[in-house]
Fold each of these.
Amino acid sequence: MHRTSVIRRAVLAAAAVALAATGCTTQAVGAAGGAASPSEGSPSASASPSSGASAAGGAEPTAPAPASPPAAKVLMAEGTENEQVREVQARLRQLGHFHRSPTAFYGSMTAKAVSAFQKKQGLSATGEVDGTTWAKLTSSSRKPSAAELRPPTTNELDKPDARCMTGRVLCISKESRTLAWMIDGKVVSAMDVRFGSENTPTREGIFKVDRKEREWESTLYHTSMPYSMFFSGGQAVHYSSDFKARGYNGGSHGCVNVRDMERLAAVFDQVKVGDKVVVHW
């Protein structure tokens, strides 16, 4: 009996030792029977192989991308208004890229002309004038004269009508919307003009200046008509403040409107009663 008890205690002690060993293994095994991941707080979790390699300097750092070259400084662009813009426009006009008189204002037409010049020169067609574009433009053109910087008309004169080539003539073109004061085939002065509307058209043909009025008010429309030179009944060449203010958004009642008072005043003093007037397409 005593011996049986001793044997039983020995068996129980051996079983306890085996159970303790099995319990340690169970804590290290996951539910699927694989090895459990170490917890985030364990030292092995805090040092991944990749971070360890970086920390040890084992991996080469990525080389930075090369820096882009600095953008060229823009000297003039849309919205700029100064005398250098006027010179740009005059030079572009010499080269056939700009088809109006210089205004000193850099608008969409100037940007388009600059872009065309840049394309021809093999430059990036930005439509803006930077240092490279300016250098190319000045080397490709000559310094504009005073007349090129401030020409007599915004609209380009067309070829004068053959009837304007002799004598003293106010040569008025409906196509180019210009008036050229000509003497013996040479243009003395030129200016922009506008004409009558469809309901009150300006008559075409050959006329003569039959009277001049430095100050005049229309008896029909009660509007001021300074520097009037009548050539066909009530139709006359005269200054129009409305033309100056609204441009071609308006029209006359048949007269030839001029918007440059100073230029017209000078021509008014030169023109004589009896001088020829030619209105043509």
Amino acid sequence: MKKTFKASLTILLLMTFIFVAACGKSGDNGNAGEGKKGDGVVKIEFFQQQGEEAIQSAYKAIIDDFSKEYPNIKIEMNTVPDSVKVLTARIASDDIPPLFTDWPTQLQFKEKVKNGYIEKLSGQPFLDKVNKSYLAMTPAEDGEYYSLPYARNYMAVYYNIDLFEQNGVSIPTTYAEFIEACKTFQAKGILPLYLPLKDVGHIFQSTNIAYVPGGVEEMKKVVDGEGKVEGNQAFLAFANKLNELTTYANQDAFGASTAMMQEAFANGQAAMVISGSYGRGNIKLANPDLKFGAFPLPNDTQETTHALSGVNAALSVSAKAKPEEKEAAIAFISYLARPEVAQKWSDLSGEPSIIEGTKYEDANLQPLLDFIDKGQVHDWMASTLPGNVVTELYSTTQAFLLEKQSPEQYLKNIDATIKLNAGK
């Protein structure tokens, strides 16, 4: 929960910061708070929304380094389950963390900006260190910037390089080749694909974007009351493909979580998994010796294949924070934007940094990033659809697979789910 100072200390702390602002040395990028020393210690909560072990460990390592350089600032990281719901509830109760991660391309973030909850960061020198193409994805509706975009993410197929080589399987570039690879592994007693259908959300998003180019926009028409997906041939093909994937998956798929999938893949129990960049670090933690690469989940042709990729959790400051909290938060964000710090975070977390001067040190994943750089990508659904609609579509998809509904019924249910939750 949010850390606050006793009222009797507020004036003392504010005077301390005024003093260190006048006497402290300048930092490497000229931001307020950079390099300043003082006897007072400001504690700020860092509400960090990514629960993966590797990502949390990476932030902890950076916080430890930061505290040595800035002993007057104490960053207390807080990561909780259902962080999106928790943060929404805290904002509603006027308990906004001074520093938090969020997703600046999503509709929910833009609503927070419009309601005055997030501090404007336009003009901060650390924004100059962000890859320009990804920075361009993040302005709010007023054209201003309210976050430091720190990494890009992706959904892809991770594959066990040794199993592919030992069984003479080539990297598939079409859906038909992907299914042939699954058949080859299955015939040899190797689990082709581990699916975590207990956590079906990201599987739904990545397969829909892969198999239905323009599908998110079609669902947006349903949100706006201007269309339907029922009878849409591309969506029917998507439903059939999603069904087919389950026939090559683990028998306990509906009880399997994302963490279980990552551990199973790390231990060589499956040839492939559909996972995000966030999973790479956890897989490497579980088995540092595993050789694995990645390729985009293929559609019928390379030309119609699209990968799910966007700006990952970025860092923002509460507009409601105290002046000393804002100063401390900006000091930490400025520190994170240093190329050498961003590189360390990327190496530890497994996430590809978008800070200029960093490299993604994994040659086996470079072909995927090269594909993404060509532009055949789509952002996460919540950048186009209301977040509650996306969440409810997860349950709709899980029911489709678990109850073995017909593809036709699934499409009707998608329409019904969207209309029920779109607030129209």
Amino acid sequence: MDLNLITHWKPEPGRVVEWKVTDASARAAAAAPVDPALPTTMQERHLRRARLAANTGETQSPWIGIAFDFPGRLDTEAMTRTLERYVLRHDTLHSWFSFANADADADPTDTTNAVRRHVVPADSIALVAHEGATLPTSEQVRDHIAARFANDTSALGWPAFVFGVVEHYDTEPPAADDSFTLFHAVDHAHTDMQSMILTFAETRLIYQAELDGTPPELPEPGSYVEYSRKEREKAATLTLASPEVHGWIGHLTRSGGTFPSFPLDLGAADAPQPAIGSRFDLADADECERFGAVCKANGSNFIGGVFAALAITEHELVGRDRYMALSPLTTRNDPQFYWSQGWFINLIPVGFALEDAATFTGLAQRAQDAYRSGKALGEVSVQQVIDTVLTHAGPEAMSQHTTLAPPPIVSYIDARRLPQTENFVSTRATGIVGGKATQIASIWINRVLEGTWMAISHPDTDAAHRSVTTYAERLSTIMKTVAREGDYTVSPFAPVAADSATAAGAK
């Protein structure tokens, strides 16, 4: 599966068909009472940030989307049943959120202004198809879908999701190569990228079952609303003496109390710049197998090897002797949530020193141990730790803590373990995220059947393009060398160019 910013996605032109909730469903949603289940900690921060952005007129793209192809011509009735069944299966898609004080001048960063959940009754949810215009260019299709995603996916209203199809045929009779593209997005409060991949598998399975007239063979998904309740219950038990709090504080202390940053110049130090996505192949399938074998022989898994290679990259480019990343970790630890839609993610710290490590094989186990240590904190988010510390610090500290900006991340997903990944290429499956002004770079490393590749979201500046290319090429060189020679010798710090490295983090 590819990953694209919406501004650089190139869909095929064609006729648009979209699904919207019925007027009766919208009325039922507006009347939905407050539900006692609170949002998760991650959801609450996201919702407060979204309201703050709306209040200040900031451009934001708080949704995640996906697009993929189906063979043949669209059966509108079958797809309507498919999408209704899909929405009804996942209770997070029935939720919308509001603030206790809904006044326009109310401060969304004020934690005394509670975020409340509303749940739309499942028996009132229905979708109806609307035939749209034929859009003759890729740019027109993209712009139309981008507007729908931007305007109709807020979790502060319902529905927070968009479904549509672009039909790629205008001739009669039907031809063997006819196809259509399903596009879908939902506010991040209700999803993560793994959920999007599950959407890919689930909608394909349901649609085929609808065409065949058979019941879809899918397990029942667990309730994300119930997951939210349990997450809040656990967070309420945290104290300064909790091991997870101690673990997070230790990582924050060692990193100087700040989150990690991209090591090279992004050309956006003075102000945010428009975002762009860059994609780089790191290693092919055979190289990945050999790289993984070296990792295993040296006390590491593939993911530990990736972090070791990242640490060597940053050491060689800017001289960092300690690596630190915030990495998303799935919290689908209960099997009932395997097929559930929701934001099943916490960020974990992955931090370790290079010290005397002179080779990749000398560092691989250290990196793997750091990842395992971070996973031990995976059920407690850093925000819950901050909230716990601030609660004990008193009301004044709580009132001063208003930072809602997301930190840069380093994500790794082994998509080979998820259902129907063998169909990514043939269906042109792509994840889609929004583009907005940014000063940071976030990294997604994805292993698929064809190999491992990296996407980096970064400011669209000349400096950033040079920097992310330099970074990706060095990382790829390390991984390919390990695969080819069984090891990699760490080189002394030697910046590629004087204007491409920053002093931040260099030692």
Amino acid sequence: MAANVLRRHIGVPGLVVHYLTSVLGVGLLVIPVLAWTTAGPLSLLAWGILIVYSYPFALVFAKLSTLHPTSKGVAQFVEVAFGRRAGRIAALYLLMTLLAANPVLGLIAGRYLLAALAPGASNRASLAAGALVILGCVALNLLGLTVSGRVQLAVLVVVVGVLCAVIVLALPQGSTSNLGPFAPHGWPALGDCLLICFFGFIGWENAAPIAEEVRDPARTFPRGILCAVGVVGALYFAMALTVALTVPADQSTQEQLTGFTRLLRLATGADHSTLGYLVAAVLLVLTTNAWCLGTSRVVFALAREGIVPRGLSRISPRTRTPSRAVLALVPGYSLTLGLLAATDSNESVLIKASSAAYLLVFLLAFLSAMRLIRSGPMRWTNYLVTAVTVLMLPFMGVSVGYAAAMFAAAVLVEAWLSRRERARERNGPRGARARDAAAHLPPHTARDTAPPHHHPPHDRRKR
């Protein structure tokens, strides 16, 4: 096996676990309450729309991953569709987005852990706890996909089992009187609610970077995505309905974050806040681990092409894991964590700044699919998700500015890389030999570098 080629060993169960752990998290614990307080019963319509939308959304990514199963993910789709330079810009932009936004998951997990173990801890203490969660996920990824995948599966089964039990026990405690009036804040609130709920569906694209490790992608991806979308959709709508029937609409920001603990209290008849915080933290740790996996594969793919240092493409012979790419996440995430700590800000800043950035990543993939998928029902499916994605962009507000700034930075970095490559080509082996020869010439010969004048034959005869 080549030194920098990943092993294909992920089947349908492993892909489903990766999908679920990439998507489930804040979308199951925080967003249902936040959406409910934003739009009331109208939020159920928003959930229904996005659950239906998520299947073609995920299906387009699965189809692209089947056609181009490499660790570059979205960047590979853009390169095949629009050329090498466009692909490199997309790769740099994707990497910036992942490094800037991924810490959100670990930071929220750390905040839940501190809420369970040390209530009242400061924001910087929560940031430190989140940093430890991220470091733990990096360490788990160093053990290899086989080990981390088994841990993910075992913990996911337990956590989802607890969530299902809470929903089943809390739902009968609710009242249908909560469902009227249907649009208490007006129908325009549906737009804001769609944007909030959309954050819960970020993660379907995280399977693209592991496509190089999926066994028989043409068979595995369609089956895996069908199962994963069904499970996610059912869990999301069941949780949203439970919240709608049991939670008052006038929740404070803190109560929005602890909505799951309220459901747990309804389900058990006792205050189990600590247990609720721990369940939430564990689920978010799973999501953080899945995103560390996907991001490390993007780093690995870019290193293999020389966009980032090539040494990061080294694969551990023992675990068959790109261990250096995994370790590169530590300094990559440190910049974001350091800025938050220096300004004493929390992860909500990252959520607001990164929502449009992710949406632009999706749009790049869908525009690429227009060139790569030219026939069949998938072509029209892609038209649908592209149109919906474009319609969402104007609602992102100031987040669009952050996304534009990152995209401009990616363009500038790619231009610098291109200039450096052209300079290396000009100063290649031949140029180096010419410089070495010139270095040994006498000083006066530097003026005689022009080619000698050749006299025509009739001049020689005259002489």
